[in-house]
Amino acid sequence: MTTGLTHAERRQLAVDGLRKLRGDRLKDVEGGLKHTEDLWGATGSFTIDFVLADIWARPQLPRRDRSLIVLAALITIGADKELKVHTQGALNHGLTREQVEEVVTHVSAYAGFPRALAAIRTVQKGLTEYEGGELPPHEPAARKSDEERRRDGLDVLKTLMGWSDPEADAEKMEKRMGPLAEPTIQYLFGEVWARPQLSRRDRSLVTLSVLTVLGRTGQFPTHVRGALNHGLTREEIEEVMVHLLAYAGWPTAVTGYQKVREIFAEIDKGG
């Protein structure tokens, strides 16, 4: 966290962060912050000074990556009003329209289609407002045969899981997971994870965020190791948990952080 700062210095970090998040859409930043405190009292103050300053201003992740984390969290918990604001903020932080919409597609596999379908409506409202007009027609998903889906799924699993013999390891998965294995390989990894709109590093960020918010730390051994394989550092993975203090709450983020550290310890022991 930021240390040794006066309240005025922390407030300035929040002002700078809000300008980056909202861009030209918030003309009177100081007036907006005063209105937030007048309306919400201490909750408004802490939204400004803790969330925007203590959390968003940390250097361990760029604002672009933090927007990925927040979009994933807001979609998962169904916070539509905040999602619209952060959809536009993500564009100001360097994500493209296609990448923002792809976060929704990715989250659909981990938090379910009802949440994703509700979220895509909110996201597209935010995008339409931001761009000042109707969105162009969207491209449908690639039309893949089952053979192509399996091929692409095994390619993802090779990097995510560190598989040296994907076919043999897939057979082990199929024995372990039964009827869940085929859709996992063909759809989750062969369709969703294989899409080019987000890098695998970005998808690992999104996945860890969703799993943390849902409290599904049982899936962490796979996805923490996969995140390392996809180029995230240990510090960046831990920073996901720090950022989620503000969006998922202390119990959820602390539990996630503890599990992450356990996995790092296992890796260091050669596990």
Description:
The chain is built from 14 helices and no strands. The protein has 271 residues and is mainly α. The radius of gyration is 20 Å and the shape is globular. 34% of the residues are buried. The model has no long low-confidence stretch (mean pLDDT 96).
Question: What's the structural blueprint in terms of helices and strands?
Answer:
Layout (H helix, E strand, L loop, with lengths): L6 H16 L6 H12 L1 H14 L7 H15 L2 H13 L4 H15 L1 H19 L14 H15 L5 H12 L3 H12 L7 H15 L5 H10 L4 H15 L1 H19 L3
Helix pairs in contact: 1-3, 2-3, 4-5, 4-6, 4-11, 4-13, 5-7, 6-7, 6-11, 8-10, 11-12, 11-13, 12-14, 13-14
Rg, rounded, reads 20 Å
Give the % helix.
over 70%
Largest sheet, in brief, is: none
Please tally the helical runs, counting DSSP H or I stretches of 4 or more residues: 14
One letter per element, helices H and strands E, the order comes to HHHHHHHHHHHHHH
| Global geometry | globular
What is the arithmetic mean of pLDDT? 96
Number of strands: 0
CA distance, first residue to last residue = 31 Å
Low-confidence stretches: none
Portion in strands: under 5%
Structural class: mainly alpha
Observed structural traits:
0% strand; 271 residues; mainly alpha
Could you give a short description of this structure?
With 271 residues, the protein is mostly helical. It has helices spanning 7-22, 29-40, 42-55, 63-77, 80-92, 97-111, 113-131, 146-160, 166-177, 181-192, 200-214, 220-229, 234-248, 250-268.
